[in-house]
Amino acid sequence: MGNVIIVAVLAVIPIIALKGSIKHLKGEGGCCGGGSTIKEPDKKLSGTVINTKVFKIDGMHCESCTSRVKRAINSIDGVSAKLDLRKKQAVVKYDKEIADDTLVKEIENIGYKVVAVQ
What we know:
Largest sheet: 4 strands, antiparallel
Radius of gyration: 19 Å
């Protein structure tokens, strides 16, 4: 009887772990800080928007990730970002000329990978 209980417990543990992993990979679970997330407020540009680019970003799994990336991009004067977790991208508006490398470096310094700039 004891063996049956041990086998049952050992069967349930991987199932629970798999369900958590699937939620995490879909961006529905808590990671990178977990639990409740304080959303980063939108940044308003002071000048006229002169350009818009889309940065495709690898490594964002949850709302905490998108808040970190948004905060990093918005810390740069002259740009404002809106993040989309499902599409894994940042839509960045500019009111002055800023090199793509500046934004890429800021994003990659916090642990994410920019795979394309459009």
